[in-house]
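Could you join me in thinking about how sequence relates to backbone shape in a protein? Would you write everything just below, so we can both look at the same thing?
***
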Amino acid sequence: MWTVNDKRRKIVDLIISRKIRIYPDDNQSEIINNTFNVCRFIWNQMLESSIKSYDDGQLKIPNYGDIVLQNSWLSKDNKEYKFDRHSVNNVKQFLHSAFSRYFDNIKNGNIKMRKDRRPKSFPRFKSKKYCKNSYSNYHGEQTRIDNNNHQIKIPCLGWVKYNPREKQIPDEWKIKHITISKSTTNKYYCSICFQYSINIDNIQNDSKLNILGIDYSSSSLYMDSEGNNASYPKYYRSNQQKLRILQKKFSRQQKGGANRGKTLNKIRILHEKISNQRRDFLHKLSTSITKKFSIICVEDIDMQNMSQCLHLGKSTMDNGFSMFREMLLYKQERIPYHKLILANKWFPSSKRCSKCGNIKSELKLSDRIYECNECGLTIDRDVNAAINLKQYAFNYVNGLNILC
């Protein structure tokens, strides 16, 4: 997201994040894992106390100092157990944000219940075995990056090596905060949030707008208004047979055995490979589209609801269209004079004729060819919807001058 901070020179501030793989030594890995454990312990203690106060009629989240007084091993006098104390202090803020999202969902009528008779949006306890291991440090001024030696200085850890194949980070970028995470395959990552400024006076504003309409397609990810599709490789389906063999082998092995743990690690590695392939493909595709088109229009459809109906769950979750839409959103906002327009989900993009505007209300999902009863237009259903989305974006731009 960019905002103007100087109207005379038109200087804009941009926020960008990078996720890099780091290689900590044994001592640094121990500190990271200790911080994971302490953050999880503090979260569970705070959540337990908050639930008791919430059930009594008034929500009260305890402070970190109150939990330290009850657990002496967390005090500063314990020099043997090292962890990042600044990151642990952020747990209360994260729990407060979780309760805020919960109350917002209740206000909006989202009260679906789960097995423990709590709403689905209610904060959960974190499990040591299944929860995501991560913590955030907001002291960005204590973080340094050495591009020559491929090292990053992290608070409480010192200098840590990172992958030398990562893109070089400019020195003028200001570090806001960092997040350390650990994957299920025991790989450590550091997500860094940067802020930098650019002068948009040096960027030419092309008066000719390149508009692209994108319609979701379950088979090929999308179909655009120019008649092109993404030709998504379907990474999950291509690895489904390997995954099936490993999961079948895993289910037959003895619980708690060493071989069962090895098989589980192979399953995690395969899932991570599929996820990395999907993310890499979507990143390259969204970047190429952003460079070519200044205005992009997609439908604001709920992919989770779509995956739960019409037997399209596996295809919907495999192509990652929601992730692709988020990539387009922040990459368009990163470039001045670019915009991503989300069309209303009730906009009849598929039922409307892109030539005469007639709405064909009896159109079925099985009708892959759109035939207009008024003007006789015969066109592919997805291409017709993409053209309507392009027209939607054109009307939106004319109604709201986004170049001001």
